[in-house]
Every structure is written in structure tokens, then in C-alpha cells.
């Protein structure tokens, strides 16, 4: 059992899992409580357009993904604010358009597209120290913003209009948070892949919401459940020889179901 | 009487649709202004103009009270109940404290005296025991009281209430009237309602909205005026003891 811990690739994977769990615990609580799950799904799928363009023009696809996801976030925010277009319709359009763009560019790229599957389904076992550095930087940014602006963020998320009457820089804070969501999603692509990105941003949070109705407690509990899911999912994927991303998500759903059951059994009067 | 602010020749609307036309409205220092009008008449639009959430298409908003000039932080605002997401994970006590946002610099923590203020207010309105409960666990009336505390914690010069009586339970509705009269000694109050009957005795002036605004000080309000503007209050009367008589439409 312990021998897998001595492999450098597995050590890197574990470090990445821990960092990702912390960031997803924080950002995911914001996403779930502000009902941005669908928007986040759209951002992640739209990023596939950037990955395709990266392949075609021969630069790092993850950079293309980062640009596309931030772009998608700001397009949704700006257009829904300035026009009467329904947010969920626009989210649907960007979701499919990004995927379509990615497919076209990958098709046009001569030869075989290496690692394509790892962008779609993640591959935590191949993360490099450079990846870990990037994930650590994003984690630090997210933690710093939530530490400094915690009150402003929850008051804004709870009642945006009231926050405006109080002179809070609502637009600026919204843009900062959207950028952090976009970056978190891109970082997640390395771990669980585009298709599964939304999992670590929702399942641990929904699990923690079973036990507490306070934002801060939900954040801590989400981090805890995300850590449980990602670490045990990773180990399970090694033993069962199944893809790591899917294994992590499968584990987090199992944890959710167990938590529901536990709540029923132990917290029933 | 001293004016604290005034709307002059305001036109306002959204997406090319004009909801308010040529609105003039003075609000005085110790005013208690009731704004009445049917649904969709532009009541909330008018509030959004006063709160600075919406820019008027034409006309001006002038603040004469120093604390209101520049920013509108000295306004306490109780929004319509349906405007917030009740599933949001936040406790009642924290919602009350959020009324101090306007007075805090970014990234500052609340002090003991802030918490003291919040506790005192919640105690006054009988919701202190709910301070650690999530907003989703509160009844409509309890949540309205939480919002009232949030609006009052910054000691505002002007209190704006948007349909505060909609979800108030009947026991608190009676109290609300007394509370507002008491608050009115320290601040001007604007109260929007489609049923002003329950708080009428406290109201000093009335504005009827239906596309545009008709302003009346209480002593001139007659049944004819209210009927002309299609307001839901049919008959008002004032004697030594303030009283209200409401008549159903179509009755003599």
C-alpha cells in the first residue's frame, strides 16, 4: 500500500489533489450558493475552443483554455447585464460553441492530437512540477481574496442590490470572482478534465450543505469532503486501474450518498 | 419644513419602456411619506431612482441633507421580500451586520461595538434568539424583521421600506406601526405599499403613482382624489384619533 507513495508521480498527484481540493472547496461554495453551477459548466466547455486553437497554432493548449474560459465568463456577465437576453440561453450557446470550435480546430490540425483525452477526462497522474506551481499560485490568489473580502463577497452574493446601495464596488468584486472561477476551472482541467470539471465544484459543496447553513462552515466542510474524495479516489484509481478523474468523482458521489444516509440515521429525532 | 431631498421632472424606465413620467417629489426632514399605487405602476422604479440603482432618463435628484450627498449610505433600505435568495447560506445575525457595509472600508472586520448594535436591534425586534439561524429557516415575518434591523443598524437619516407589510405576521403588523412612528422621530421614512391601510395613521404625506406621481399632504386627501388616481385606498379620514375607513370598490 505505502509503496505507491514513494513514486514521484504519485506524490505530485497527491499534492495536486490537496491543492485542488482546497481551491474547489472555497470557489465551489460560492458557485453553489450563488447558483452559478450551469454558468461554470459553460465556462469549462467553452474552454475547449481554446484548447483546439492551441493545438492548431502549436502553443500550450492550457493557455488557450485559460483565455477562452475567462472570455466566456466575461461575455456571459456583460451580455446578461446589458441586454435582456436570458442568462441560461446564452450559457447554452457558449457551452456548445466552444466545444464546436475546439472540435473543428483539432480536426484541422494535421496528424494525431496527443493528450486530447487528458484534457477531456483529466490526468492527475501526469501533472508536472510546473502544473503544481500554477495550481499553487491560483490557490493562493483564491485564498487571499476570500480571506480579505470574505464579508463583502457573501453580502454581495446574498443581496447584490442592497450591496450596491451600500456603495460596495459590486462590479469589480463580481469580475474578480468570475476570473477566479474561470482560473479554477482551467486548473481543474488538468486534474479531472473538461467534461468532469464541475464535479469537485459542486458535489463536496452539496454534501456539506447537508450539515450546515453557514457559508464559512460550508467552505471548510467542502474542503474536507473534496480532500476525502480526491485522495481516496486517487488511491482507488491506482488499485482498480481505472481513470483517476472518473474515480475521484465516483468517490465523491459515494461520499455524498453516505453523508445523506448518515444524516438520516443519526440526525433524525 | 426642511427638505432633505427632492426629485424634479424625473422620467424613468427600462429597455425603452417609460415607466415614470414627469415625477416631482419633495421629501422633508421628519416626513413619513406613503407611496401607493397598483402593481406595475412604477413604485419600485421610483425607489431605485432614489437609491441610485437606476439613472433617470431625464430630471434630477437633489439631496439637501449633507449626510446623503455624494453617496447614499445614509439611507436605510428594506427591499421587497422576494428580492433575495432564501436558500443562501448566511445567518440572520450576519445579515443584520451587513447593514454596516457602507460604513466599513473594504476588508475591515466588525468591532465589538458593531456586534453590540446588532444584538441590541435584534433584541428590540424580538429576533435575538434567531441570530445564528440561517435565513432559509426563518418565516417571512422574521426575515422582514431581520431586514428591518439591517436597514436600521447604520442609524440612517432616511428609511425606505418596500412593501414591508406583505409577509409580516399580524402580531408584528401592529407593532410595526408603533415602531415606525417611533423611528420617525429620528429619521424620514418612505413606505411603499399597495395596501397602505395598516400603517395609515402614521403617514404624513401620500404620493399616488400610476405612470406619474400625484402628491398630497394628508389633510387634503379626499376620497375623490384617491379614486381619480385609481389608488387601492378608497377612503381616508382623520379625526382626533387617527382612523381609516376602507371601502371596497363598487360600494357606495
Structural summary, described in words:
The complex is a heterodimer of chains A (269) and B (252). Helix content of chain A is 80%, strand content 0%. Chain A is an all-alpha fold. The radius of gyration of chain A is 19 Å and the shape is globular. Chain B is an alpha/beta fold and 252 residues long. Chain B has two domains: 1-74 and 157-252, P-loop containing nucleotide triphosphate hydrolases (Rossmann fold, 3-Layer(aba) Sandwich); 87-155, no CATH class. Helix content of chain B is 24%, strand content 27%. Chain B contains six helices and eleven strands. Chain B is globular, with a radius of gyration of 18 Å.
Global outline of chain A: globular
Sheet having the most strands of chain B: 6 strands, mixed
Query: Tell me about the biggest sheet of chain A?
Result: none
CATH topology of chain A: ABC transporter involved in vitamin B12 uptake, BtuC
- Report mean pLDDT of chain A, rounded to a whole number: 91
Helix content of chain B: 10-25%
Task: List the chains of the largest interface with their residue counts.
Answer: A-B, 29 and 34 residues
What's the number of helices of chain B?
A: 6
Distance between the termini of chain A: 41 Å
Q: Order of strands across the widest beta sheet of chain B?
A: 5-6-7-3-8-9
Task: Name the poorly predicted regions of chain B.
Answer: 232-252
Order of helices and strands of chain B: EEEHEEHHHEHEEEHEE
User: From N to C, what is the helix and strand string of chain A?
Assistant: HHHHHHHHHHHH
User: In the CATH hierarchy, what is the superfamily of the largest domain in chain B?
Assistant: P-loop containing nucleotide triphosphate hydrolases
Q: State the domain count of chain B.
A: 2
> Which class of secondary structure composition applies to the elements of chain A?
mainly alpha
The stretches of 5 or more residues of chain A where confidence is low (pLDDT under 50) are none
Rounded Rg of chain B: 18 Å
- Count of β-strands of chain A: 0
Helices of chain A, by number, come to: 12
Shape of chain B: globular
